[in-house]
Design goal:
Chains A, B: Keywords: ATP-binding, Biotin, DNA-binding, Ligase, Nucleotide-binding, Repressor, Transcription, Transcription regulation. The structure is a homodimer. Chain A has about 325 residues and is α+β, with helices and mostly antiparallel strands. The first copy, chain A, folds into 3 domains: about 1-60, Orthogonal Bundle (Arc Repressor Mutant, subunit A); about 65-270, 2-Layer Sandwich (BirA Bifunctional Protein, domain 2); about 280-320, SH3 type barrels, CATH 2.30.30. Helices cover about 30% and strands about 30% of the residues of chain A. The radius of gyration of chain A is 22 Å and the shape is globular. Chain A starts with a helix and ends with a strand.
Chain lengths: ~325, ~325
C-alpha cells in the first residue's frame, strides 16, 4: 500500500493530490491515507499538506549510492562486496546467514532501515530509514578465540577516529565500545563470533551510527541518552563519505593489528577513551561492582582499582560513571 | 532397498534365504543382493552365508535404549532432553540447528552413526553405526567468552575419569583434549562456541568415543593411530552404561567449575595429562614450534619452555611429542 501511494506521488511530482482522490484510487478511507502518509513521513519522506488542496511530496529520503561508494573506496577487501538492502530485520542476522553460505572477509551488509536492530545485552537498536549507517562486516581474523575482545576495541577506535577526522566532533570511547559525544551515545557496536575450539571461524562486526537523526526521530525514552552526528554538528553529515572513510580506517587498523598485535591498538584506544581515571560501577550477576578505572590489560579487560587498593579486571558489562553513593 | 531386505530377514529369523529367492522378491540381481548384504555387514549386521543354502541373519547391531538410559540418569539437566537419531551428518550440526530453535542446556543429541562426523582442524571423524557414542551436548555456561578453553579441558577430564573408572584402562589426556590409550586415540572432542561480544551465547560440546570398533572397522590409514575401548579392553563395553556415567561425571565437574572456578579442573587435568614434562612440537602458521611442556596456565594454554629457557604459551594446535631433530 505504501508503495502504491508513493508511485502515485512520483507520477504526480509537484502536484497536490487530495485525500479524496487518493482514497478513491487506492480503494481505502481518507483516514487510512492519512495514516500511510504519517508512516512515510517517519521514513524520511517530506509532504506538504494544504487544506482543500491535499498533499504534495516535497522530498524523498536520501539513499546510499552504492556504485558511487564502491568507486571511491580504496580498500583491498573491506566493502569490496556490498549487499545493500532497503530494509532488513538486523544486518547482523543477514550477515550471519551470508557467512554460512560462504560470504568472504570484508563483505559489507548495509541497510537503509533495520526493523529489529540489536544492541549489546539484548537491547534494541533504533535504526530508522535513511538516517544512519546500519551495517555489518564479515571478518575472518587470523587470531585465536580469546583475542576477540581486541577486535571489539579496534572497531571502536576506527569509528571514533573517523568521526573525529570527518566532523571534528569530540567523540570518545566508553569501555568497551560505546561512542559518546558529551556523554550521549552516537553509535553501537556489536560483535558476534563463532569458533571451533580456539579457532575463530568468523566475526560479524555490527556497527550502527546515528548520522542524521533529529531529536524527534528518537523514541522519547532514549532522547536523553542518545544523540546523532547531525544534532551535535548542527548540520547533516554525508553518510556515503562517512562510510568510505570508516571502511578505510577500519581496514588500515585491522592490518596494523594483524602485523603488530594489540599494543598499537591499545595505545589508540586509551588515547580516545573517556572511561579511564574515573569512578566506575557496573551491575554483575553477583551484584553491584565499583571501583576506579585505571586502564585496560593486554586482553582488553578493564583494570579497576577497588576500595581496598587491590586491582580487579572486568571482562564485560555496561559501565556507568561515578560512585553509587 | 536395505530396509526391504532387512524386513525379509526379520520375517524369516533362523531361516536361510537364497540369493535367488531374494533377488526375485526384491526384483534385482543376485549381485545387487550380495552388495546390499555387504553394506549391512559394515553397519554391524552379522550374516551367515552357506553355499547352496543362502544367507541367514545371525544378529543385528545393538541400539541404544534411550528410555532405559533416561531412567538410569541421575543428572539434573545433562541428558534430560535427548534427541536420538539412527543417522545424522554430524551431531554438532544437528545441535547447532537445535540451539537456534531454543534447545535448552543439557540437551543431548546422539546418533548411532554419523555420515560426516567432524574432528578438530577440519578433520573427519569416523563414526560407524552402533560402534561408538557419537554425541553433542548443548551448554549455556555462565562464563565470559575467553574462558571457553576451560570447558574444552573440562570435557576431556570428565571423559578420561569416566573411562578410567568404568574400564580401568590407562586413558590419558593429550593437550588440549585428545584422549589416548598407549599413544592411540580413543575419542575426539570438538567444542563450537557462539558469542555476542564477551557474552557466551552457547557451546556445543561434540564428543565421539570409539567404544566397540574393531581394527577392521577403521579405515586403513588411521589403524596405526586409532584404537577403541573394546580393542584395548579385549571385550565389548556397554555403551549405555558409559553414556550414563559420562553425563553424570560431566555435569558434576561442570557444577564444580561454576562454583569454584578453573583451579580444581586444572588440577584434575594435570593429573590425567600425558602431555606435560615432555618435549613437544607443533606446526603453526609461522612454522614449526618446539619446546618442553611444563604446565598449563589459568586460561588453559600450554606453557612451553623454549630452548633459550624462556617460557611461551601455546593456545591451540595439534601437538606431537619428541623433538624434531
Amino acid at each position: 500500500m505504501d508503495e502504491q501511494l508513493l508511485q502515485i506521488f512520483e507520477e504526480n511530482t509537484d502536484k497536490f493530490l487530495s485525500g479524496e482522490q487518493l482514497s478513491v484510487k487506492l480503494g481505502c478511507s481518507r483516514t487510512a491515507i492519512w495514516k500511510h502518509i504519517e508512516r512515510l513521513r517517519q521514513e524520511g519522506y517530506v509532504f506538504e499538506a494544504v487544506s482543500r488542496k491535499g498533499y504534495r511530496m516535497i522530498s524523498k529520503p536520501e539513499k546510499l549510492d552504492i556504485p558511487n561508494i564502491s568507486s571511491r573506496l580504496t580498500t583491498e577487501t573491506f566493502g569490496r562486496h556490498i549487499r545493500y538492502f532497503d530494509e532488513v530485520d538486523s544486518t547482523n542476522n543477514t550477515a550471519n546467514a551470508l557467512v554460512k553460505e560462504g560470504g568472504v572477509e570484508g563483505t559489507l551488509i548495509i541497510a537503509e532501515k533495520q526493523t529489529a536492530g540489536r544492541g549489546r545485552m539484548g537491547r534494541q537498536w533504533h535504526s530508522p530509514k535513511g538516517k544512519g549507517l546500519w551495517m555489518s562486516l564479515i571478518l575472518k581474523p587470523r587470531i585465536p578465540l580469546h583475542f576477540t575482545p581486541h577486535l571489539t576495541l579496534l572497531v571502536a577506535v576506527a569509528l571514533c577516529r573517523t568521526i573525529r577526522q570527518l566532523t571534528q566532533l569530540p567523540a570518545g570511547i566508553k569501555w568497551p565500545n560505546d561512542l559518546l559525544i558529551d556523554g550521549k551515545k552516537i553509535s553501537g557496536i556489536l560483535l558476534e563470533s563463532s569458533a571451533e575450539e580456539e579457532k575463530l571461524h568468523h566475526v560479524i562486526a555490527g556497527v550502527g551510527i546515528s548520522v542524521n537523526l533529529q531529536a524527534e526521530d528518537y523514541p522519547e525514552e532514549i532522547r536523553g541518552i542518545a544523540t546523532s552526528l547531525a544534532i551535535e554538528a548542527g548540520k547533516e553529515v554525508n553518510r556515503s563519505e562517512l562510510l568510505v572513510h570508516f571502511l578505510q580506517e577500519l581496514e588500515s587498523l585491522y592490518k596494523v593489528y594483524h602485523e603488530q598485535g594489540f599494543a598499537p591498538i591499545k595505545l589508540l584506544w586509551e588515547a580516545l577513551s573517556v572511561s579511564l581515571n574515573k569512578a566506575v560501577r557496573t551491575q554483575s550477576p553477583q551484584g553491584l561492582k565499583e571501583g576506579f578505572a585505571v586502564g585496560i590489560d593486554d586482553s582488553g579487560a578493564l583494570i579497576v582499582r577497588q576500595e581496598d587498593g587491590s586491582l580487579t579486571k572486568w571482562y564485560s558489562g555496561n559501565i556507568e560513571f561515578g560512585a553509587s553513593s
